[in-house]
Specification:
about 375 residues, alpha/beta, Rossmann fold, 5-stranded parallel beta sheet, 15 helices
């Protein structure tokens, strides 16, 4: 039997407020309380503002922009004209002051139900594209490609939501590349995956000035429970429904977790250089994929980084060695790339018109075109 009830999530710090909202929702026909184990996005989020209202508003904006919550109602102990204007600008549909008035909340719920019944108001679920980026060996620019590809995707369309995940457990460097200091990492999710929902995830993500949402790795072994294939599967499944693109810096290891990431990826970019050690490793990786059967050939794309036309090993040599066509090349510009990393800036910020930057935008173009074809089919 299909459950057609409207799913409401309550995020309230005050116990009395939460219980009051719980009673009102349960006694109103057509609604149910969102369970913590439910990984679907809530149709409605009722959020209580805390002392740091500005921080809460930023979280709510991220939830709305990413589609992690259908609509948002706000409530707060103290109200002011400034707070109400900020709530309107954020996109909240209703604002309840304390103490809560039962009739006011019920009327708002009925109005929301009416809006839901109008076909034009129903938002389609996202079906985001996961792009796994892994390297044939360390130090060849895998993180550089992942970071700047995510930024290039965000530049393509302002209405696209992009997430960047660092899957390097010990050597995650994305925060350094973007000069951010995240308060959380995906190790927080691994501690208690039962808490994982869109609101919890958005509170952990760090938003960069480019618009991308970053989920760093723990970057050290701290004795906490590590990620499992099941944890990663649930995390990426949720992110697919929240974001248009999820770019994953997978580093080099091929363990159970990284294989799960690759299995769920719509496209896998294998980064290599035109050097014999890199191409030798690439052959081994491709052979491993073929033997395991976890990744269809059409999803695997070889990208040559730091490409020089004068290289002793040519593209045709590499294709014969790998028995696979080269999908994309990114020209060598080590000086600008190193400068961007040292400054914690993206290539778009320090060298917007450089060939390397344009090449990464071209790669984003190709991936975006694939997404547009999917949308037309839907």
């Amino acid at each position: 039997m299909t459950d057609n009830k409207i799913n409401i999530k309550i995020s309230a710090r005050d116990t009395h407020t939460r219980l009051k909202l719980d009673d009102i929702i349960r006694s109103t026909e057509g609604f149910r309380i969102h369970r913590s184990s439910d990984d679907r996005k809530p149709d409605l989020l009722i959020f209580e503002l805390g002392e740091d209202a500005e921080k809460d508003f930023q979280l709510i904006e991220s939830l709305i922009n990413s589609g992690a919550a259908g609509e948002v109602f706000l409530t707060a102990e103290k109200t002011s004209q400034r707070l109400l204007l900020r709530a309107i600008r954020t996109g909240a549909k209703e604002f309840f002051s304390h103490p809560l008035k039962e009739q006011e909340v019920r009327e708002a719920l009925e109005k929301f139900k009416g809006r839901r019944e109008e076909p034009s108001q129903r938002e389609p679920l996202k079906s985001g594209q996961i792009i796994g980026v892994i390297g044939s060996k360390g130090g060849i620019g895998t993180t550089t490609v992942a970071v700047n590809l995510a930024v290039s995707l965000a530049e393509k369309r302002s209405d696209q939501s992009i997430a960047l995940v660092d899957a390097n457990i010990l050597f995650g460097e994305i925060p350094l590349f973007l000069d951010i200091q995240p308060s959380y990492h995906w190790g927080e999710i691994a501690k208690d995956v039962s808490r994982l929902d869109s609101t919890f995830l958005m509170s952990i993500l760090t938003k960069h000035s480019s618009g991308i949402h970053v989920l760093p790795s723990p970057s050290y072994l701290n004795g906490s429970q590590g990620a499992t294939p099941e944890t990663i599967g649930r995390l990426l499944g949720l992110m697919q429904r929240m974001f248009d693109f999820v770019v994953i810096d997978g580093g080099q290891p091929l363990n159970e977790v990284s294989l799960k990431i690759l299995e769920m990826s719509d496209k896998v970019l294998l980064i290599s250089l035109l050097s014999l050690p890199c191409l030798s490793n690439m052959r081994k990786i491709l052979k491993s994929f073929a033997n395991s059967g976890c990744l269809p050939k059409e999803r695997i794309n070889v990208v040559i980084n730091r490409y020089l036309r004068s290289s002793e090993v040519s593209l045709s040599d590499a294709e014969r060695s790998l028995d696979k066509k080269i999908f994309w090349t990114i020209p060598n510009d080590y000086k600008r790339t190193a400068s961007a990393i040292n400054q914690g800036k993206t290539l778009s910020q320090i060298a917007s018109k450089a060939p390397t930057t344009k090449s990464l935008r071209g790669l984003a173009d190709i991936l975006t075109q694939g997404e547009k074809k999917k949308e037309k089919k839907r």
